[in-house]
Structure formats: C-alpha cells, structure tokens
Amino acid sequence: MTAPADRPHEPDGKQRQRDHYRAADPAGGPLTTDQGVVVDHTDDSLAAGARGPTLLEDFHFREKLTRFDHERIPERVVHARGAGAYGYFEPYESCAEFTRAAFLQDPSVRTPVFVRFSTVQGPKGSADTVRDVRGFATKFYTSEGNYDLVGNNFPVFFIQDGIKFPDFVHAVKPEPHNDIPTGASAHDTLWDFVSLQPETLHAIMWLMSDRAIPRSYRMMQGFGVHTFRFVNAQGRGTFVKFHWKPKLGTHSLVWDEAQECQGRDPDFNRRDLWDAIEAGEYPEYELGVQLVPEEDEFAFDFDLLDPTKIIPEEQVPVRPIGRMVLDRNPENFFAETEQVAFHTANVVPGIDFTNDPLLQARNFSYLDTQLIRLGGPNFAQIPVNRPVAPVRTNQRDGYHQSALHSGTNYSPNSLGAGCPAVAGPDGHAYTHYAERVDGAKIRQRSPSFRDHYSQAALFWHSMADWEQRHIVDAFRFELGKVGALTVRSRTVAELARVDHALAAAVAEGIGVPAPEAGADEPRKTAVSPALSLVAQRGDGSIRTRQVAVLVTDGVDAEQVTSVREALAAEGAVVEALAPRDGSVTGADGERHAVDRALPTVASVLYDAVLVPGGPAGAPTALADPDALRFVRDAYRHGKPVGALGAGVAALGALGADDLRLAAEPGQAVADRGVVTDTAPGPAGEPFLRAFTEAVAGHRYWDRPVARS
Ligand code: HDD
Hints:
Blueprint: H1 9-21, H2 59-69, E1 82-91, E2 111-119, E3 134-142, E4 145-152, H3 165-172, H4 188-196, H5 201-208, E5 222-223, E6 228-231, E7 237-246, H6 255-264, H7 268-278, E8 284-293, E9 319-328, H8 334-338, E10 351-352, H9 357-373, H10 454-462, H11 465-480, H12 485-496, H13 500-510, E11 546-550, H14 557-569, E12 573-578, E13 583-585, E14 591-593, E15 596-597, E16 608-611, H15 625-636, E17 641-644, H16 646-650, E18 669-671, E19 674-677, H17 685-697
Parallel strand pairs: 11-12, 11-16, 12-15, 16-17, 17-19
Antiparallel strand pairs: 1-2, 1-9, 2-3, 3-4, 5-7, 6-7, 6-10, 7-8, 8-9, 13-14, 18-19
The structure holds CIS-heme D hydroxychlorin gamma-spirolactone (HDD).
Residues 76-79, 82, 116, 118, 135, 137, 150-152, 157, 162, 165, 225-226, 307, 340-342, 358, 361-362, 365-366, 369-370 line the site of CIS-heme D hydroxychlorin gamma-spirolactone.
C-alpha cells in the first residue's frame, strides 16, 4: 500500500482538475463587461439605498442576468447526451485502389478528428447507463474538407426509410402526456410501434442485448450502418461498410448493475472517457471496411441498400485500414461537445452515398436541425466545426456571422477576377459518382427490403447462452413495463417469427400466452460468430480496469501492495477502499492510505474486487456491511473476485457453497472468476497470474447462485 503522503494518482487528479479551474488569461486581468469595461463589484446589484429597489441603470446587473437567461440552446432532438474527445486517425496503408479520399492514402499523414459518443433517447441531463443505442460520430478534419462518419454502436437501424424517423423517435421518446420515462425504451408507445413495424425487429434484438449497455465508450464497437460507396481516382465505385473496433475489446454491463449505476454515477460513461484520457490511457479504435465490388450488388440474400441488414463478417471479412486514437479532452463542454455539428452529407472526394433511403433522408435532416439548434447558418465557423481545408464560398451574412468577407459574392463575376473560381479538372474537386438512375416516381418500399426476420434470427442464434439469457430478461423487463396486454402479445407473436423458443421464454415472463409452436417458424438458423461479444474481446489486456481492494484496520499491507503493483504493471487502476477515508492501520502497525471511503462508492463502479486478509482471527474488511454488500454485488454481477489469506474464509459470507475456494496455502484456486489463495503475506505468482487472467475475462456467467 502507499503511505498517506504518497497517493500517486490523487494529487495528480486534483492538480489536473485545478488546471481546468484556472482562468484562460494567466495574467489575471480584472473582471469586465462584454464591452470590456472593468467591473469592481459583482455581488450586489445597484439599488436606491441598502434596502431599496434595484435600479434599471445597473448595466452590469442587466447584462449578467440577460446573458445567463440565454445560456441554453435547444438540445439535440435525439442524441442529446454526449461526451466528446479529440484525437487523430492514421491509415495503415494506402487505400488508393478503392478510394481517392486524401486521408486514406498515406500512413504518415495523421488526420485530426473529433468524436462524440452519445445516448439517443434521453435528454441532456439523463443517465449514461440506460438501455439504448450509443451514437459514435466522428469528424475527420481532412486536407480536402470535413468528413463526418455519423454512426452508432449497432450495425443496423430500426427503420428502413427516413420518412419513418419522426414516427420511430416519437414512439421511443417519453410518452407525450407525462414525459415518462426518461432515457428508457420500456414503455407502451415504443413497443406498440415495434409490434406493428416488424422492420424494427433486428435492431430491437441488438437493443435487448448487452450491446445496449456498454461498459465504456472505450469498449464499444462503432458502425457506419449504411452501405456507402468508395470511389477511386479512376472513378470506379466499391460498396463499403465502416466498422470501428475498440482495442480494449467490446464489453458490457449487467442490466441490474447498469440500473444501479444510473443513481451511483449518472456520468459513468462520460467520466470513464474523460478520466482515461486525462490519465494518458488513450482510447484506440481500428477502422475496418467491408468492401463489395459494384458487380456483386445483388450477390446477397438481402439488399445492400437496406439499413436493417448487416453483411455477415464471415461472408465479407472486415479489412482493417487504419486506427484512431483519442488523446485530448475538450477544453469547454458547451463550445465543443455541445456545439459540434455532424452531418452525413459532409463527405470528401472518394466517399459517396448509395440510394439507401435512410441515408438519403439523413442527408437532409442534419443540416436542417442544426440551423435551429445552433441558431442560424454560420455554425461551420465555430472552431470545433471549422474545416482545416480552406473555405471560400459566396455564402454571406446570417445570424452570428463572424467572418469578415470581402470581394464579390456571386458567380460568375469579373469584378472579383472570377474568384473564387470552380476547380479545374485536376482531380481535387468533389465529383458525384455518376450512378445511373432510372425509375418511375412512386412511393413504394422495395420488395427486396421485405424480409424482417432472417437477420433478427441470425443475431439470436449467434449469441452465447448467457447472451440469450440476457436478451430474454431484457424483453421481459421491457415488455413487463408495457401496460397494454395487446401490445405485449403482438410483440411476442412477432418474436415467434424470429425464434419460437425466444418468444415462449419471453411470454412466460410477462404473463401472456406463448404463441403456437411452429406457427411461423422461421427461417434459417445460420450463425455469425462475430456477432457475439465472445468474439470481440479485443487485445485481452486489463488496461484501465478498475479494481477495488477492500481494506480495514489490521489488513496485511504487503498483500495489498503485491496485488496493487502486479495489476498496476498491467495497466489496471487499483484503489484501496475502507469504511472511512484517510488511512487504516495495517497488521504491521503502520498507517496506510486509503483511496476512497466505501460509502462514497459502490461495486457497480468497479470491474473487480479483492479481499485481502490480516492476522489469523482478525476481522477482514467484510465485517463492514458496505464492504460485504460490495463483494456480494460484484459476485452476482459476474465480476472477478479475489481473496487472499483470511479473506478467503470471509468469502463464505457469499453463501456460494458450490464454489471451489483455496484450502492449501500457496495453491491458488480459480473457479469461474473467483480466485483465492489462503497464504498470508505477499500474493504469490500463481495467484497474481490467475487473478490477472480473471480480470481480463471481464465477467463470469455460470456461477453458483449465492444464497446471500
Ligand atoms: Fe441520426 C443525430 C446517428 C438515423 C436525424 N444521429 C445523430 C447522432 C448520431 C446519429 C451519432 C448524434 C451526432 C452528434 O453527436 O452530434 N442517426 C444515426 C445513425 C442513423 C441515424 C447511425 C441510422 C443509420 N438520424 C437518422 C435518421 C434521421 C436522423 C433516419 C432523420 C431522417 N440524427 C438525426 C438528427 C440529429 C441526429 C435529428 C439530432 C441532432 C443532430 O442530428 O445534429 O438530425
């Protein structure tokens, strides 16, 4: 353990925080008005006498209040709650064969990026760990202009045509009469919509899976969803789907844990992202592409233009083309994360659209919504939105114009020497892909978009047992909150068309009759192993995992130090928690610093827990009710649990009788993520290895139920 005077991470953290509090002007000039007039008093308004009425002539008071009254702008209609970070992207090799996009040509060129992660349904002040899709929007500031890849952490969307977007969003948002529930999809209107609109089912399967409660924005895949089009310098097009894969793997929370987190730390995912970047643990994602030659457009049993479909990775492998590192937190949340404006139509030469009707609608919607949200047409001048490529337009004026334009503002002109002139045929201008379009003007969903069940079934059949259990539980939770029994039944009937066993299991939990067996039995039972979280473990490291060590007076400090050092060497963050902040007196009689007081934290904020021992017969930390609850929660949420020395016997309090615990000192025993060794003193190598492996495994689902 560390001595009280030497708490390595804390002073740093506090120092870093203080940096954010320091004024922008280090010279520290005096407070002024917006007009630069120096102010000598800002605590009392100007009044006619100490107890008299406030005077209208108090311009400082009026300006201060007026500015405050106008601080808020409309929040995003969806994706209101988010967290952003800056970083860079670098390609592994030239992608010239497929695209002429400048930022995908040269591995030595780093393109700056800004990424905003978000939830979708909840308002700006809602909790992070709700069951929801997560936005994963990336702005690449390329030398040829801004490219925005506005994706999600699901590879499919709920609807096929953007004209249904207002219907879908109205249905999932809180109910209009009482604005309930916040940040949740478990309510009647969403499921009413779902039960009537089977194209939602595939994305709904993802929403009911653990993908919808990510452990961290740093441990979450991202997808461009639509099929886009790469275009190379010769004008040849290639269909492309974009994938982000996090280096740390894709990991999720447990639903019970996610719900408790909403109260314990509503900023759980935002804080995690911020803290990791502050600590120099820069999140990293690999960009991959699935490429389909134009001539293979109809080679699949689904339509490439249908955004409710994936191309299974086993069918078209994901080819890694580069990596993104997020290495800088924003300076000011409002200026950057709130004012950033992403738009699917922000593309650069070499990246083009397809006729996916959802994408076509998005290409209208983003600019439209930003005109109102950001108060006019000049938001591209806000620093976070400003391209690094030069901007020369004939666009003028409008609210919040800050550019001092000069010269002519029309084209063609002779008075301004024809400037800005359109580009010549040097290959740098954006040229739309000359796709042949031929058709009658009709409102009709393509018949090739009709199958809503096969890929929902593919997802279901690709899940591990425990993932399927979680999906059933999620459906039971969500539909169990739906008041209208007809909606519950109709949804179950739709699920039966995905998989009968799934529908029957859900029906059993929500008190509606199970559908007839075989009524509409699908489909194929194909699987795509890449869809399971089991296949998305990342580099298998334990970097940035939060490990709690429960300490109390009499703790074997050497034991704690040995584990702390071993895990920290692998990049984990280890914190000693005690009933009170400050320090504990170890078995060695010395005072040892604790990092946090138990009442201020909870198991749901950590990834793993260790119970060290002390002298034989002395109480372990688990004598404290908060500590005992901590370990019980960690155990039932499937988290790695370690115990050393007398801490092993203390695990008996879990009541998990079938669990194998160590008996022989020095012989570490690992059983379903519970790692124990009864030896006193510093942890031995076998224990450290087994506990590190357990932490890397993230969660263990097949544990005996604890009686406690
Ligand atoms: Fe959207 C925001 C992602 C379909 C209309 N969307 C928004 C954001 C993300 C996505 C990540 C937040 C960007 C940020 O952080 O500022 N949206 C998606 C994905 C979709 C999708 C992956 C399907 C593949 N969206 C979609 C459709 C429409 C919209 C079909 C409308 C026709 N989306 C919007 C919006 C938002 C938005 C209303 C709200 C705030 C904003 O754009 O700037 O225009």
